[in-house]
Amino acid sequence: MKPRVPCGVGMGTRSLVLLGSGWHPPLFREECKALLGPIETLHPRLTFVTQLDSILDRISGASLVDEVLHSTSRLWVYEREVSSEDIATYVDEWAESFLPIGTFAVRARKLGKGVCDLSRRDLESKIGAKISSDQRPVDLEDPDSEIVVILAGPGDSSEHWDDVQQNPLILWGVRDTSFSGTYTGTSPTERPFFKPVTLDPRLARLMVSLSFSRGPPSAVVDPFCGTGGIAIEASILGLETLASDLDSRMVEGTISNLDWAKGTGSYRVERCSADGIHEVWGSHKGCSFVFDPPYGRNAWSSEDGLEVFLGALSSARKMSPDGTICTMLPSNPDALDGPVSDQLQVMGMDWVDLRHRIMESGWNVRSSIPVRVHKSLSRLVVLCHPSD
């Protein structure tokens, strides 16, 4: 028995499907929510959103969005068998309404174990042959349009725990060529000022994205700027950036790196302690405080750096009471094995106790997602909104 195509579900030009990085699907979905608002999760790496006029602008600087498809349709497979010929027929019917006149190519992608042992190459060949006509000839080298077919099955590999069920799904649509593609960034070693502790540019960009959860910030503030990784990403996105550090060498290095990066956002860099940023920068509305605080020698098992971190939270609250916090805190690697528990060790204490300390500083934790740094260290990406 052939599976029935769910006509109209997910179809139309006023909707988009975003394909996320396989490195960290939970953070991909969190980034989508921060930039776009409510989303529908189809698969750990696939989200469906209603298209807004500004949607491509909003995700243009995303860290974990790999690809954008429009005019999509989808087929949930579950326990039924489906053949390449079946899918070619469905896509051909869809193409009559949604594939533009002109040359095209078919690109198939497999997520996880794929679906029904379907071959990507066989699927590409059969769909291309089915649709090809005088009005829509195949052109594999330089097509006017690309049909992307995603075979999204269970078992998608990621080193990060995920609670989203991976039901078998076949999805297809037209690649949106106005989306610039996967974030690549530049290697920190290319910058004029480099230290081995420099934050991964992809994580820095992600944290800036997450700080959009209450809307685009008026400025991005980093009170522990180090070599300027977060400041660079914010400036590249065209955001005003206010960076500071207690170490004058880091201040000078960040200025050098920001000059080198040539971002379009204005920036200022000052030497000051993290608990004094409200005095240096003054009062601002709608700031995002994005930072990777110092941890001390023993990282997650020690309270080294705790008071400095809490001081930064208190100062941020004074500077921008309606702001947003996005930070990373060292945690026990056990965080990678399942849901974040109240007993997880973060900065030398149970997570439930640290959350209480954060609340005392004027902030509520809205999300906390672990990310692996290396074998013996994970970090908790923490997003906070004002507590009232």
Topology:
Layout: E1 15-20, H1 25-36, E2 40-43, E3 46-50, H2 55-59, E4 65-76, H3 84-98, E5 104-111, H4 120-131, E6 145-152, E7 169-175, H5 201-210, E8 220-222, H6 229-236, E9 241-245, H7 248-261, E10 267-271, H8 277-281, E11 288-291, H9 306-319, E12 324-331, E13 345-346, E14 349-350, H10 351-360, E15 363-374, E16 377-386
Helix pairs in contact: 3-4, 5-6, 6-7
Architecture overview:
The chain is α/β, with parallel strands linked by helices and 388 residues long. The protein folds into two domains: 15-175, VC0802-like (2-Layer Sandwich), CATH 3.30.2130.30; 188-386, 3-Layer(aba) Sandwich (Rossmann fold). It is 27% helix and 26% strand. It is built from ten helices and 16 strands. The strands form three sheets. Strands 2-3-1-4-7-6-5 form a seven-stranded mixed beta sheet. A seven-stranded mixed beta sheet has the order 10-9-8-11-12-16-15, with helices on both faces. It has a two-stranded antiparallel sheet with strand order 13-14. β2 (40-43) and β3 (46-50) form a beta hairpin. The chain is elongated, with a radius of gyration of 23 Å. 45% of the residues are buried. The model is unreliable at 1-10 (pLDDT under 50).
**Can you tell me the CATH class of the largest domain?**
Alpha Beta
Class by alpha and beta content: alpha/beta
Spatially, the strands of the biggest sheet line up as: 2-3-1-4-7-6-5
Provide the CATH superfamily of the largest domain: Vaccinia Virus protein VP39
- Detail the poorly predicted runs: 1-10
Report the sheet with the most strands, covering strand number, pairing sense and barrel closure.
7 strands, mixed
Spatial extent as radius of gyration: 23 Å
Encode the helix/strand succession as letters. EHEEHEHEHEEHEHEHEHEHEEEHEE
- Beta fraction: 25-35%
Summed up, the domain count is 2
The residue fraction in helices comes out at: 25-40%
CATH topology of the largest domain: Rossmann fold
Q: Give the total of beta strands.
A: 16
Provide the CATH architecture of the largest domain. Answer: 3-Layer(aba) Sandwich
Mean pLDDT score: 91
The first-to-last residue Cα distance is 56 Å
Query: Based on CA inertia axes, which overall geometry fits?
Result: elongated
- Number of helical regions: 10
